[in-house]
Design brief:
alpha/beta; globular; binds zinc ion; binds fe (iii) ion
């Protein structure tokens, strides 16, 4: 049975995702219960699992309500289980997970939070607040080295991996990216698409890993024009990455 994914906009700019396979239906990062409940009802789907990429309330705020209503099993980072409301199954990179009889890859990607994980289901990566389209999460519980290592791990996924991230930050991320790499053709093209999608009220997600590698400055700290914009042609990769993150914080 192929996997079906539905985007559920939550709060002001969060995305939860319904992942349907056979009789199983998971929600990824339900920040609140109401929009998820409505999306399930509209399709006649029954929730069986709740997946959390990290402990922030805008990713697991709906856990307890949805669990109480549906009996869904809560699956989250095993190394951060104490901070995941209602957690039943703690997963690690070693344990992985299984959903409707298929293997789910779990990647530990600390830095935004210590316990952050990415779930990869059938070539779809749910990256939470680690990798955004053309951006990355803030370094709340890790440093630039840790985030660079986590993003490098995500970059080992196949280029046709579809990225489903936690927030609709794409347009503002792209505006920042253009300040560093104005002559990047792939970036210009992606921004045209993104502006058109947003003008039509549509999500910019999913996006392929190939597009992210070609456009996301946080995956491109060694790109020559980015180095020139930073004035850091001779610096090492992590130092350049750190400076990109610092500039984005001020953008
Ligand atoms: Zn977060
Ligand atoms: Fe978030």
């Amino acid at each position: 049975m192929p996997t079906r994914i539905e985007i559920v906009p939550c709060l002001s700019d969060n995305y939860a995702y319904l992942v349907k396979s056979g009789d199983a239906c998971a929600v990824v990062d339900p920040s609140e219960a109401a929009p998820v409940r409505a999306a399930l009802a509209a399709r006649g789907w029954t929730l069986t699992h709740i997946l959390n990429t990290h402990h922030h309330p805008d990713h697991c705020g709906g856990n307890l309500e949805l669990k109480k209503e549906t009996g869904a099993i809560v699956v989250g980072p095993g190394k951060d289980a104490a901070r995941i409301p209602g957690i039943d199954v703690g997963v690690t990179e070693e344990s992985g997970w299984e959903f409707d009889g298929r293997k789910v890859q779990v990647l530990e990607v600390p830095a935004h939070t210590r316990g952050a994980i990415t779930f990869v289901i059938d070539g779809n990566a749910f990256t939470g607040d680690t990798l955004f389209s053309m951006g990355c999460g803030r370094l709340f519980e890790g440093d630039a080295t840790m985030m660079w290592n986590s993003l490098s791990k995500l970059m080992t996924l196949p280029d046709d991996t579809e990225i489903y991230c936690g927030h609709e930050y794409t347009e503002s991320n792209g505006r920042f990216a253009l300040t560093l790499e104005p002559d990047n053709d792939a970036l210009q093209k992606r921004m045209e698409e993104v502006r058109a999608l947003r003008a039509a009220g549509k999500p910019t997600i999913p996006v392929s890993m190939a597009t992210e590698k070609a456009t996301n400055p946080f995956l491109r700290p060694d790109a020559p024009q980015i180095r020139k914009s930073l004035g850091m042609e001779g610096a090492d990769t992590v130092a350049a990455f750190h400076e990109i993150r610092a500039r984005k914080n001020r953008f």
